[in-house]
Design brief:
Blueprint (H helix, E strand, L loop, with lengths): L2 H12 L3 H20 L7 H12 L4 H5 L5 H20 L11 H29 L4 H14 L1
């Protein structure tokens, strides 16, 4: 069982609020759709929020971000698993997520999140460079944007 599936089932099973369950269901559907649409591409919380807002009117990206322990965490898990699956299809030396050892799964998850964060910073830096900013200014813009996120 995937970590995101386990997390989803735990949240839905233990939630008493109908709104939380509905948000989780919508987010799950949005993640499924985004993964199918751009099979090898990484998506973001903003992408999921836009999808949900266009299809159902919510939850919006800001509402998802305001729930970092549940909604945003589920999306980050899905993104990490999706990107791992994409990289595995391109590389056979990647170790699959092993859920039999909770500590190892947690370590793999944290490594994946760290890699995602590093790649997001690199992309932001490259975008700033393309927009004509010097290296030092581009780096400062990346740092400012990370503090605001």
């Amino acid at each position: 069982m995937r970590v995101s599936t386990s997390f989803y089932e735990t949240v839905v099973t233990n939630s008493e609020g109908v709104a939380r369950i509905k948000s989780m269901q919508r987010i799950r559907t949005a993640c499924d759709s985004l993964e199918k649409a751009g099979s090898q591409e990484q998506y973001t919380i903003a992408d999921v929020g836009r999808y949900c807002e266009q299809r159902w009117g919510g939850p919006k990206a800001q509402s998802i971000r305001n729930s970092p322990a549940v909604l945003a965490r589920y999306i980050r898990l899905r993104i990490a698993e999706h990107m791992l699956a994409c990289s595995e299809s391109m590389r056979s030396d990647v170790e699959p997520l092993d859920l039999s050892d909770a500590n190892k799964a947690q370590e793999q998850y944290l490594l994946a999140l760290g890699e995602i964060e590093k790649l997001e910073r690199d992309i932001a830096r490259y975008r700033a460079r393309i927009d004509g900013y010097r290296d030092d200014v581009a780096e400062e813009l990346v740092e400012i944007s990370k503090k605001q996120a």
